[in-house]
UniProtKB/TrEMBL annotation:
<protein>
    <submittedName>
        <fullName>Cytochrome P450</fullName>
    </submittedName>
</protein>
<dbReference type="InterPro" id="IPR002397">
    <property type="entry name" value="Cyt_P450_B"/>
</dbReference>
<dbReference type="GO" id="GO:0020037">
    <property type="term" value="F:heme binding"/>
</dbReference>
<dbReference type="InterPro" id="IPR036396">
    <property type="entry name" value="Cyt_P450_sf"/>
</dbReference>
<comment type="similarity">
    <text>Belongs to the cytochrome P450 family.</text>
</comment>
<dbReference type="GO" id="GO:0016705">
    <property type="term" value="F:oxidoreductase activity, acting on paired donors, with incorporation or reduction of molecular oxygen"/>
</dbReference>
<dbReference type="GO" id="GO:0004497">
    <property type="term" value="F:monooxygenase activity"/>
</dbReference>
<dbReference type="GO" id="GO:0005506">
    <property type="term" value="F:iron ion binding"/>
</dbReference>
């Protein structure tokens, strides 16, 4: 199964109309893909993952909500998958689906125990301190390029800021080779480019986090890692390592793309251009609109059917893989019949839904990081403009993540 051709293995649920989700011409404008899939197949579409592996993509808002609310029918333990015999060890999506003893794959009481430890550790993060820390990180990053009058914000700012904030929350130093290597390997494992080895990168991430847990067990501090270690639930080191990877990965890549997609909106949409400098309200509106229309996590793999069941008029077989189409659900015409998104409406599915949604208060912390990043940049560089035409911006070629390859800007140089 190293062949990447979109031919489904025998006995798969997909039929001749299945659409490959790899090598898409739609990667720059996935909304077109979601529209055509919805038109042809309804709210649940047969798709082919890398290597022609069959799955179901859930496109409807009510259907995604149903799947995420019914763990007894659609569960997270990927060992249920009926396609494992067709999956090679070096499959590109293995970091997403290969079973790990992590909170992501636990179910029932064990999931509540593990998610509870993360929630308790994150609840003790002071949001005012986090905003202050993010402001300091933002200032340091901006100072590196403020004097030049130009910058590429994806690498220099949008990715760097949430990673530094996340590792600081977890008790790692913000700077250093170890931290930068962790950033690079997390990106590769979550969103591999041509020639990357996501499986090897994920192993290296695990090794770095294991060293952090060992260090904090010996010398605990006022950080998320130490709080997870000291929690009465008594997680093992291996469990803490796996769950910390989930926390850091969720804090970094999606938040970076949230920052970048919001800056893109503010710099290209005339609705915001007139009042964004000095206008706090519009930054909040832009952050929320991005979660609806350009959500950083487009699709999430996945859930596995516990038994044969019906969903959106489809027969889903026991062990079938179900991919949550979060972006498609957020733009479902059933909930936005006139394609109008209310800025104050926060009922999007960008942080998922149900038992396995992003654990509270992680979305609030992500909002603090993203909002501080955007507002600090606009405060420091009030005449910030795109350095290219909006049509020249390109999206990373990924059906999973929604983020730009680069965001070049120019501004009046600021000399300290």
């Amino acid at each position: 199964m190293t062949d990447q051709s979109p031919t489904a293995p025998a006995g798969c649920p997909a039929h001749a109309g299945a659409v490959p989700l790899s090598g898409l011409e739609y990667q720059q404008t996935p909304s077109q893909l979601y529209r055509s899939l919805r038109r042809e197949h309804g709210p649940v579409a047969p798709v082919l993952l890398d290597g022609g592996v069959p799955a179901w993509l859930v496109l409807g808002y009510s259907e995604v909500s149903y799947v995420t609310a019914h763990d007894e029918l659609f569960a997270r333990d990927s060992r249920r998958w009926n396609q494992w015999e067709n999956i090679p060890a070096d499959w590109p999506l293995m970091p997403f689906v290969g079973y790990q003893p992590s909170v992501l794959f636990t179910e029932g009481a064990e999931h509540q125990r593990r998610a509870g430890v993360i929630t308790h550790a994150l609840e003790q993060v002071d949001q005012f301190e986090l905003a202050r820390d993010c402001g300091q990180i933002a200032d340091a990053l901006i100072s590196r390029f403020a004097g030049s009058g130009q910058a590429e914000l994806m690498a220099a700012y949008a990715h760097a800021l949430p990673m530094r904030a996340a590792v600081q929350m977890c008790g790692m130093p913000q700077l250093g080779t170890d931290t930068q290597d962790l950033v690079d390997d997390l990106r590769i494992s979550l969103d591999a480019a041509e020639g990357d080895d996501p499986v090897a990168a994920y192993v290296r991430v695990g090794e770095r986090i294991a060293a952090l847990v060992k260090e904090k067990r010996e010398r605990p501090g006022a950080d998320v890692t130490s709080r997870m270690i000291l929690d009465p639930a008594g997680l093992t080191d291996e469990e803490i390592v796996q769950d910390l990877i989930s926390v850091i990965a969720a804090a970094q890549q999606p938040t970076a793309n949230w920052i970048c997609n919001t800056l893109r909106l503010l710099l290209t949409d005339e609705r915001f251009a007139l009042n964004v400098s000095g206008g706090r309200v519009s930054v909040g509106e832009a952050l929320n609109e991005v979660l609806w229309l350009d959500t950083p996590t487009q699709n999430f793999i996945g859930r596995w059917a516990v038994r044969d069941t019906q969903l959106g008029g489809r027969l889903i077989r026991a062990g079938d893989c179900v991919v949550l189409g979060l972006a498609a659900a957020n733009t479902d015409p059933q909930i936005w019949p006139e394609s109008h998104v209310g800025a104050e409406n926060a009922a999007h599915l960008s942080f998922s839904n149900g038992e396995h949604r992003c654990p509270y208060p992680a979305p609030l912390l992500a909002d603090v990081i993203a909002r501080t990043a955007v507002e600090t940049l606009l405060d420091r560089l009030p005449d910030l403009v795109l350095a290219v035409e909006p049509a020249e911006l390109t999206w990373r070629p990924s059906i999973w993540m929604r983020g730009l390859t680069s965001l070049p800007v120019r501004f009046t140089p600021v000399v300290h």
